[in-house]
Q: What sequence folds into this?
Protein backbone atom coordinates (compact mmCIF):
# COMPACT_ATOMS: atom_id res chain seq x y z
CA UNK A 1 0.00 0.00 0.00
CA UNK A 2 1.22 3.49 -0.84
CA UNK A 3 2.33 5.81 1.93
CA UNK A 4 -0.42 7.92 3.42
CA UNK A 5 0.54 11.59 3.41
CA UNK A 6 -0.77 13.30 6.53
CA UNK A 7 -2.27 16.61 5.47
CA UNK A 8 -4.02 19.38 7.36
CA UNK A 9 -7.72 18.53 6.87
CA UNK A 10 -10.44 20.96 5.94
CA UNK A 11 -12.45 20.29 9.06
CA UNK A 12 -15.02 22.98 8.42
CA UNK A 13 -16.47 24.82 5.44
CA UNK A 14 -14.97 28.25 6.02
CA UNK A 15 -11.51 27.21 7.25
CA UNK A 16 -8.44 28.01 5.14
CA UNK A 17 -5.62 27.35 7.60
CA UNK A 18 -4.97 25.60 10.90
CA UNK A 19 -2.30 25.64 13.57
CA UNK A 20 -0.60 22.37 14.44
CA UNK A 21 -0.78 22.52 18.23
CA UNK A 22 0.18 19.05 19.41
CA UNK A 23 1.50 15.72 18.17
CA UNK A 24 -0.17 12.89 20.08
CA UNK A 25 2.22 10.24 18.74
CA UNK A 26 6.02 10.48 18.48
CA UNK A 27 7.66 10.08 15.09
CA UNK A 28 8.67 6.48 14.43
CA UNK A 29 5.76 5.10 16.43
CA UNK A 30 3.06 2.84 15.02
CA UNK A 31 -0.41 4.34 14.59
CA UNK A 32 -3.74 2.65 13.94
CA UNK A 33 -6.19 3.97 11.36
CA UNK A 34 -8.90 5.94 13.13
CA UNK A 35 -6.84 6.72 16.25
CA UNK A 36 -6.22 10.41 17.08
CA UNK A 37 -2.62 11.34 16.18
CA UNK A 38 -2.40 15.13 16.30
CA UNK A 39 -4.32 18.24 17.28
CA UNK A 40 -5.05 21.29 15.17
CA UNK A 41 -6.60 24.61 16.10
CA UNK A 42 -8.95 26.50 13.80
CA UNK A 43 -11.16 29.43 14.71
CA UNK A 44 -9.91 29.13 18.31
CA UNK A 45 -11.20 25.56 18.52
CA UNK A 46 -8.88 22.61 19.04
CA UNK A 47 -9.63 19.31 17.38
CA UNK A 48 -7.97 15.89 17.39
CA UNK A 49 -7.30 14.45 13.94
CA UNK A 50 -7.38 10.73 13.30
CA UNK A 51 -4.91 8.65 11.34
CA UNK A 52 -6.13 7.96 7.80
CA UNK A 53 -4.16 4.71 7.64
CA UNK A 54 -2.27 2.30 9.87
CA UNK A 55 1.53 2.27 9.91
CA UNK A 56 4.59 4.09 11.19
CA UNK A 57 4.23 7.84 11.36
CA UNK A 58 7.00 10.36 10.63
CA UNK A 59 6.37 14.04 11.16
CA UNK A 60 7.59 16.93 9.03
CA UNK A 61 5.26 19.58 10.47
CA UNK A 62 6.32 21.76 13.40
CA UNK A 63 4.13 22.28 16.44
CA UNK A 64 3.17 25.95 16.78
CA UNK A 65 3.18 26.55 13.03
CA UNK A 66 0.08 27.53 11.07
CA UNK A 67 -0.41 25.65 7.81
CA UNK A 68 -2.74 26.02 4.86
CA UNK A 69 -5.44 23.39 4.50
CA UNK A 70 -4.01 20.49 2.52
CA UNK A 71 -0.39 21.13 3.57
CA UNK A 72 1.57 17.91 4.27
CA UNK A 73 2.82 17.55 7.84
CA UNK A 74 3.89 13.92 7.88
CA UNK A 75 3.63 10.50 6.36
CA UNK A 76 2.36 7.12 7.51
CA UNK A 77 4.26 4.16 6.07
CA UNK A 78 2.51 0.81 6.15
CA UNK B 1 -47.87 -4.14 1.34
CA UNK B 2 -45.43 -7.05 1.50
CA UNK B 3 -42.24 -6.62 -0.48
CA UNK B 4 -40.47 -9.53 -2.06
CA UNK B 5 -37.21 -10.70 -0.54
CA UNK B 6 -35.41 -9.51 -3.65
CA UNK B 7 -36.80 -5.97 -3.31
CA UNK B 8 -35.93 -5.86 0.39
CA UNK B 9 -32.39 -6.94 -0.35
CA UNK B 10 -32.14 -4.25 -3.03
CA UNK B 11 -33.29 -1.68 -0.49
CA UNK B 12 -30.60 -2.81 1.94
CA UNK B 13 -27.92 -2.79 -0.76
CA UNK B 14 -28.84 0.81 -1.61
CA UNK B 15 -28.84 1.83 2.05
CA UNK B 16 -25.39 0.41 2.73
CA UNK B 17 -24.01 1.97 -0.45
CA UNK B 18 -25.36 5.36 0.63
CA UNK B 19 -23.90 4.88 4.12
CA UNK B 20 -20.53 3.71 2.80
CA UNK B 21 -20.34 6.66 0.41
CA UNK B 22 -21.04 9.11 3.23
CA UNK B 23 -18.68 7.38 5.69
CA UNK B 24 -15.82 7.40 3.17
CA UNK B 25 -16.21 11.13 2.50
CA UNK B 26 -16.28 11.84 6.20
CA UNK B 27 -13.15 9.79 6.83
CA UNK B 28 -11.24 11.19 3.86
CA UNK B 29 -11.98 14.82 4.62
CA UNK B 30 -11.48 14.37 8.37
CA UNK B 31 -8.04 12.83 8.00
CA UNK B 32 -6.85 15.31 5.37
CA UNK B 33 -6.73 12.68 2.63
CA UNK B 34 -8.69 14.97 0.32
CA UNK B 35 -10.58 18.23 0.43
CA UNK B 36 -14.24 18.58 -0.44
CA UNK B 37 -17.30 20.30 0.93
CA UNK B 38 -20.42 18.28 1.55
CA UNK B 39 -23.65 18.14 3.47
CA UNK B 40 -23.88 14.66 4.95
CA UNK B 41 -26.97 12.53 4.46
CA UNK B 42 -25.91 9.83 6.96
CA UNK B 43 -29.03 8.74 8.84
CA UNK B 44 -31.50 9.50 6.04
CA UNK B 45 -30.79 6.43 3.88
CA UNK B 46 -34.17 4.72 4.32
CA UNK B 47 -36.00 7.50 2.47
CA UNK B 48 -33.64 7.58 -0.50
CA UNK B 49 -33.55 3.79 -0.79
CA UNK B 50 -37.36 3.71 -0.85
CA UNK B 51 -37.32 6.31 -3.61
CA UNK B 52 -34.75 4.16 -5.39
CA UNK B 53 -37.07 1.17 -5.60
CA UNK B 54 -40.36 3.04 -6.01
CA UNK B 55 -39.45 5.49 -8.76
CA UNK B 56 -39.23 4.47 -12.39
CA UNK B 57 -36.06 5.32 -14.27
CA UNK B 58 -37.97 7.93 -16.31
CA UNK B 59 -39.52 9.51 -13.23
CA UNK B 60 -37.71 12.71 -12.41
CA UNK B 61 -36.08 13.89 -9.22
CA UNK B 62 -35.18 17.32 -7.91
CA UNK B 63 -33.03 17.17 -4.80
CA UNK B 64 -30.86 19.39 -2.65
CA UNK B 65 -27.23 19.85 -1.65
CA UNK B 66 -27.82 17.13 0.99
CA UNK B 67 -28.42 14.76 -1.90
CA UNK B 68 -25.72 12.09 -1.87
CA UNK B 69 -28.21 9.41 -0.81
CA UNK B 70 -30.95 10.61 -3.18
CA UNK B 71 -28.54 10.58 -6.15
CA UNK B 72 -27.35 7.05 -5.40
CA UNK B 73 -30.95 5.88 -5.01
CA UNK B 74 -31.93 7.32 -8.39
CA UNK B 75 -29.02 5.58 -10.06
CA UNK B 76 -26.42 8.29 -10.64
CA UNK B 77 -23.01 6.55 -10.91
CA UNK B 78 -20.85 7.07 -7.83
CA UNK B 79 -17.93 8.29 -9.96
CA UNK B 80 -20.10 11.13 -11.27
CA UNK B 81 -21.19 12.11 -7.78
CA UNK B 82 -17.73 11.99 -6.17
CA UNK B 83 -16.23 13.46 -9.32
CA UNK B 84 -18.48 16.49 -9.06
CA UNK B 85 -17.92 16.88 -5.33
CA UNK B 86 -14.16 16.91 -5.89
CA UNK B 87 -14.19 19.02 -9.03
CA UNK B 88 -12.96 16.45 -11.55
CA UNK B 89 -13.74 16.08 -15.27
CA UNK B 90 -15.72 12.89 -14.76
CA UNK B 91 -18.16 14.65 -12.45
CA UNK B 92 -21.84 14.81 -13.43
CA UNK B 93 -21.36 18.49 -14.37
CA UNK B 94 -17.75 17.89 -15.54
CA UNK B 95 -16.45 19.26 -12.28
CA UNK B 96 -17.86 22.76 -12.70
CA UNK B 97 -20.83 22.56 -10.39
CA UNK B 98 -19.63 21.04 -7.15
CA UNK B 99 -21.61 19.23 -4.49
CA UNK B 100 -24.52 21.64 -4.70
CA UNK B 101 -25.11 21.27 -8.45
CA UNK B 102 -25.30 17.63 -9.46
CA UNK B 103 -27.66 16.66 -12.27
CA UNK B 104 -27.92 13.55 -14.41
CA UNK B 105 -30.92 13.74 -16.76
CA UNK B 106 -30.32 10.18 -18.05
CA UNK B 107 -31.03 8.90 -14.53
CA UNK B 108 -33.87 11.40 -14.13
CA UNK B 109 -32.00 13.68 -11.75
CA UNK B 110 -32.84 17.08 -13.19
CA UNK B 111 -31.44 19.35 -10.51
CA UNK B 112 -29.72 19.53 -7.17
CA UNK B 113 -30.24 22.92 -5.66
CA UNK B 114 -28.06 24.78 -3.20
CA UNK B 115 -30.86 27.11 -2.12
CA UNK B 116 -33.34 25.97 0.52
CA UNK B 117 -36.83 25.92 -1.02
CA UNK B 118 -35.64 26.44 -4.60
CA UNK B 119 -36.46 22.88 -5.71
CA UNK B 120 -40.27 22.72 -5.42
CA UNK B 121 -41.06 25.32 -8.14
CA UNK B 122 -38.64 23.57 -10.54
CA UNK B 123 -40.22 20.20 -9.75
CA UNK B 124 -43.66 21.62 -10.41
CA UNK B 125 -42.43 22.97 -13.75
CA UNK B 126 -41.13 19.55 -14.72
CA UNK B 127 -44.41 17.96 -13.70
CA UNK B 128 -46.33 20.53 -15.73
CA UNK B 129 -44.16 19.73 -18.75
CA UNK B 130 -44.85 15.99 -18.35
CA UNK B 131 -48.57 16.64 -18.15
CA UNK B 132 -48.56 18.88 -21.21
CA UNK B 133 -46.60 16.27 -23.14
CA UNK B 134 -49.03 13.54 -22.11
CA UNK B 135 -46.28 11.52 -20.36
CA UNK B 136 -47.11 9.39 -17.34
CA UNK B 137 -43.89 10.19 -15.53
CA UNK B 138 -43.91 11.69 -12.05
CA UNK B 139 -41.56 14.26 -10.61
CA UNK B 140 -40.43 13.80 -7.02
CA UNK B 141 -39.12 16.85 -5.19
CA UNK B 142 -36.99 16.06 -2.18
CA UNK B 143 -36.27 18.73 0.42
CA UNK B 144 -35.91 19.33 4.12
CA UNK B 145 -38.16 20.84 6.72
CA UNK B 146 -36.74 24.34 6.24
CA UNK B 147 -37.92 24.43 2.64
CA UNK B 148 -41.57 24.19 3.70
CA UNK B 149 -41.27 27.56 5.43
CA UNK B 150 -40.17 29.38 2.28
CA UNK B 151 -42.42 31.35 -0.05
CA UNK B 152 -41.32 29.34 -3.06
CA UNK B 153 -42.65 26.14 -1.48
CA UNK B 154 -46.03 27.81 -0.94
CA UNK B 155 -46.26 28.90 -4.57
CA UNK B 156 -45.20 25.48 -5.85
CA UNK B 157 -47.53 23.49 -3.59
CA UNK B 158 -50.50 25.69 -4.40
CA UNK B 159 -50.00 25.47 -8.15
CA UNK B 160 -49.34 21.71 -8.11
CA UNK B 161 -52.57 21.06 -6.22
CA UNK B 162 -54.63 23.52 -8.25
CA UNK B 163 -53.61 21.95 -11.55
CA UNK B 164 -53.45 18.32 -10.34
CA UNK B 165 -49.83 18.08 -11.45
CA UNK B 166 -47.96 14.76 -11.30
CA UNK B 167 -45.57 15.65 -8.51
CA UNK B 168 -44.78 14.17 -5.10
CA UNK B 169 -43.36 16.43 -2.41
CA UNK B 170 -41.02 14.39 -0.24
CA UNK B 171 -40.05 16.21 2.93
CA UNK B 172 -37.07 14.54 4.62
CA UNK B 173 -37.80 15.99 8.02
CA UNK B 174 -34.54 15.62 9.94
CA UNK B 175 -35.92 17.91 12.67
CA UNK B 176 -33.55 20.78 11.88
CA UNK B 177 -33.55 23.58 9.34
CA UNK B 178 -29.76 24.01 9.11
CA UNK B 179 -29.07 24.71 12.81
CA UNK B 180 -32.60 25.62 13.90
CA UNK B 181 -34.95 23.03 15.43
CA UNK B 182 -38.31 22.65 13.69
CA UNK B 183 -40.23 23.80 16.76
CA UNK B 184 -38.55 27.21 16.44
CA UNK B 185 -39.65 27.67 12.84
CA UNK B 186 -43.26 26.49 12.73
CA UNK B 187 -46.29 26.31 14.98
CA UNK B 188 -47.36 22.97 13.51
CA UNK B 189 -46.02 19.82 15.08
CA UNK B 190 -46.48 17.77 11.92
CA UNK B 191 -45.17 19.24 8.70
CA UNK B 192 -47.59 17.03 6.73
CA UNK B 193 -50.42 19.14 8.15
CA UNK B 194 -49.31 21.94 5.86
CA UNK B 195 -50.66 19.94 2.90
CA UNK B 196 -54.30 20.51 3.92
CA UNK B 197 -53.81 24.23 3.30
CA UNK B 198 -53.21 23.48 -0.37
CA UNK B 199 -55.97 20.90 -0.79
CA UNK B 200 -53.66 17.93 -1.20
CA UNK B 201 -53.19 14.86 0.97
CA UNK B 202 -50.40 15.00 3.51
CA UNK B 203 -49.03 11.79 4.99
CA UNK B 204 -46.48 11.37 7.75
CA UNK B 205 -44.34 8.23 7.92
CA UNK B 206 -41.41 6.86 9.87
CA UNK B 207 -38.56 8.01 7.64
CA UNK B 208 -36.25 5.41 9.17
CA UNK B 209 -38.41 2.56 7.88
CA UNK B 210 -37.81 2.09 4.14
CA UNK B 211 -40.84 -0.18 3.75
CA UNK B 212 -43.16 2.41 5.30
CA UNK B 213 -41.69 5.12 3.09
CA UNK B 214 -42.00 2.93 -0.02
CA UNK B 215 -45.66 2.19 0.74
CA UNK B 216 -46.46 5.90 1.08
CA UNK B 217 -44.47 6.73 -2.05
CA UNK B 218 -46.14 4.03 -4.14
CA UNK B 219 -49.56 5.39 -3.28
CA UNK B 220 -48.50 8.96 -4.02
CA UNK B 221 -46.77 8.00 -7.28
CA UNK B 222 -49.74 5.96 -8.44
CA UNK B 223 -52.10 8.82 -7.72
CA UNK B 224 -49.89 11.34 -9.52
CA UNK B 225 -49.37 9.02 -12.49
CA UNK B 226 -53.12 8.68 -12.99
CA UNK B 227 -53.84 12.38 -13.04
CA UNK B 228 -55.05 12.66 -9.46
CA UNK B 229 -52.54 15.30 -8.43
CA UNK B 230 -49.82 15.77 -5.86
CA UNK B 231 -49.21 14.33 -2.40
CA UNK B 232 -47.04 15.65 0.40
CA UNK B 233 -45.07 12.86 2.14
CA UNK B 234 -43.35 13.78 5.39
CA UNK B 235 -40.62 11.28 6.33
CA UNK B 236 -39.42 11.80 9.90
CA UNK B 237 -35.73 11.08 10.28
CA UNK B 238 -32.45 12.57 11.55
CA UNK B 239 -29.05 13.57 10.18
CA UNK B 240 -26.12 12.25 12.17
CA UNK B 241 -23.35 14.54 10.97
CA UNK B 242 -25.00 17.93 11.32
CA UNK B 243 -25.71 20.52 8.67
CA UNK B 244 -22.33 20.39 6.90
CA UNK B 245 -19.25 18.27 7.39
CA UNK B 246 -17.37 19.67 10.37
CA UNK B 247 -20.53 20.95 12.07
CA UNK B 248 -19.85 20.45 15.78
CA UNK B 249 -23.59 20.10 16.44
CA UNK B 250 -23.48 21.99 19.74
CA UNK B 251 -27.09 23.01 19.15
CA UNK B 252 -28.30 19.38 19.24
CA UNK B 253 -29.13 18.08 22.75
CA UNK B 254 -27.06 15.00 23.54
CA UNK B 255 -30.05 12.85 24.45
CA UNK B 256 -31.72 13.71 21.15
CA UNK B 257 -28.63 12.71 19.17
CA UNK B 258 -28.21 9.53 21.22
CA UNK B 259 -31.79 8.41 20.65
CA UNK B 260 -31.52 9.26 16.94
CA UNK B 261 -28.35 7.19 16.65
CA UNK B 262 -30.09 4.32 18.43
CA UNK B 263 -32.75 4.46 15.68
CA UNK B 264 -30.15 4.36 12.87
CA UNK B 265 -32.12 3.04 9.88
CA UNK B 266 -29.28 0.92 8.47
CA UNK B 267 -28.70 -1.50 11.39
CA UNK B 268 -32.43 -1.41 12.05
CA UNK B 269 -33.30 -2.64 8.56
CA UNK B 270 -30.46 -5.16 8.75
CA UNK B 271 -32.00 -6.60 11.93
CA UNK B 272 -35.40 -6.68 10.23
CA UNK B 273 -34.01 -8.71 7.30
CA UNK B 274 -32.39 -11.18 9.68
CA UNK B 275 -35.44 -11.44 11.97
CA UNK B 276 -37.79 -12.09 9.07
CA UNK B 277 -35.44 -14.57 7.40
CA UNK B 278 -35.14 -12.48 4.24
CA UNK B 279 -31.34 -12.71 4.31
CA UNK B 280 -28.57 -14.30 6.32
CA UNK B 281 -25.87 -12.50 8.24
CA UNK B 282 -23.33 -13.83 5.77
CA UNK B 283 -25.27 -12.47 2.78
CA UNK B 284 -25.62 -9.03 4.33
CA UNK B 285 -21.97 -8.91 5.34
CA UNK B 286 -21.12 -9.61 1.71
CA UNK B 287 -23.43 -6.80 0.54
CA UNK B 288 -21.64 -4.44 2.93
CA UNK B 289 -18.20 -5.49 1.68
CA UNK B 290 -19.28 -5.02 -1.95
CA UNK B 291 -20.57 -1.52 -1.15
CA UNK B 292 -17.32 -0.54 0.58
CA UNK B 293 -15.30 -1.83 -2.36
CA UNK B 294 -17.52 -0.03 -4.86
CA UNK B 295 -17.03 3.23 -2.96
CA UNK B 296 -13.26 2.75 -2.74
CA UNK B 297 -12.98 2.00 -6.46
CA UNK B 298 -15.04 5.08 -7.35
CA UNK B 299 -12.96 7.24 -5.03
CA UNK B 300 -9.65 6.07 -6.49
CA UNK B 301 -10.96 6.61 -10.03
CA UNK B 302 -12.01 10.13 -9.12
CA UNK B 303 -8.78 10.95 -7.29
CA UNK B 304 -6.75 10.00 -10.36
CA UNK B 305 -8.94 12.06 -12.73
CA UNK B 306 -8.05 15.57 -13.86
CA UNK B 307 -9.55 18.83 -12.75
CA UNK B 308 -11.45 20.58 -15.56
CA UNK B 309 -9.35 22.69 -17.92
CA UNK B 310 -10.06 26.35 -18.59
CA UNK B 311 -11.70 25.33 -21.92
CA UNK B 312 -14.50 23.81 -19.85
CA UNK B 313 -15.40 27.16 -18.30
CA UNK B 314 -18.04 28.37 -20.81
CA UNK B 315 -19.20 24.95 -21.98
CA UNK B 316 -22.87 24.18 -21.17
CA UNK B 317 -23.26 27.71 -19.83
CA UNK B 318 -24.58 29.44 -22.97
CA UNK B 319 -25.91 27.53 -25.98
CA UNK B 320 -24.65 30.05 -28.52
CA UNK B 321 -22.01 32.33 -27.06
CA UNK B 322 -22.06 34.64 -30.07
CA UNK B 323 -20.58 38.12 -29.68
CA UNK B 324 -19.57 37.45 -26.12
CA UNK B 325 -16.37 39.23 -25.16
CA UNK B 326 -13.59 36.64 -24.91
A:
Amino acid sequence: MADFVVRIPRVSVAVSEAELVELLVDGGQHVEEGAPIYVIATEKVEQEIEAGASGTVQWTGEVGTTYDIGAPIGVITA
Amino acid sequence: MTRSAEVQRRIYALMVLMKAADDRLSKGIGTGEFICVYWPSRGQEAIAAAMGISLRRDDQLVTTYRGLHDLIGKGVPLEEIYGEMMGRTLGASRGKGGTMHIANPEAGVMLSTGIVGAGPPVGVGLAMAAKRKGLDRVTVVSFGVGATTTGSFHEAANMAALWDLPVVFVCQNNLYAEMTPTRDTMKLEHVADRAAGYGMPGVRVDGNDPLAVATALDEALNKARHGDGPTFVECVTFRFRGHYFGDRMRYIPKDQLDSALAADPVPRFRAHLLDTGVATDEELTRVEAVAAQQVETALQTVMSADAPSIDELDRDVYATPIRFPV
User: Anything to note?
Assistant: Chain A has a mean pLDDT of 93. Residues 21 and 64 of chain A are 5 Å apart (CA to CA).
